[in-house]
């Protein structure tokens, strides 16, 4: 297998800013940061790299939670990291990504937010009052690296800075 990427932690300052914005009740953000597990494959035959919850997180039915992973990925040109929810969460609890599939482009690594991968999940369970509880260290999403191509007449020269929708902001 060709090796085309590497996972790294974002800086503590970047993580702290994102985490406090989404989980302001957290008292010890440094402990959450220190506990971050790097994404990894569960078996040699796995295509997906599991992303792990940095801390305990609850997702209530009908609500969304933006999870700062504390992770970024340095990806070779011509490759993309696609993020999906773990299939068990979708099957058992109807947990899904709010953007359906996360696309992490190689140039996202150089963004001013350090290429911090954020994963927004929602729960659309059938039963009333359903809450999904992720424990710190639980796998909740998976990332798969895929190669992609471009058209012969492509002449794009734009530069990215940011995540969600950043390439269409003018």
Give short descriptive properties of this protein:
alpha+beta, three-stranded antiparallel β-sheet, four-stranded antiparallel β-sheet, globular, 170 residues, 3 helices
Describe the fold and architecture.
With 170 residues, the chain is of the alpha+beta class. The chain has 3 helices and 11 strands; from the N terminus they run βααβββββαβββββ. The protein has helices spanning 12-22, 29-34, 87-93, and strands spanning 5-9, 49-52, 57-60, 64-68, 71-75, 79-85, 95-97, 102-105, 118-123, 131-134, 139-147. The strands form 4 sheets. The protein has a 4-stranded antiparallel beta sheet. The protein starts with a strand and ends in a 23-residue tail after the last strand.
What is the first-to-last residue Cα distance?
39 Å
Decide which structural class fits the backbone. Answer: alpha+beta
Strand order of the largest sheet: 2-11-6-8
How large, in whole angstroms, is the Cα Rg?
A: 16 Å
**What percentage of residues falls in helices of 4 or more residues?**
10-25%
Largest pleated sheet:
4 strands, antiparallel
Strand fraction equals 25-35%
Which ranges are low-confidence, i.e. pLDDT below 50, for 5 or more consecutive residues? Answer: none
Number of strands: 11
What general form does the structure show? globular
- Give helix and strand order, one letter per element, not per position: EHHEEEEEHEEEEE
Mean pLDDT: 92
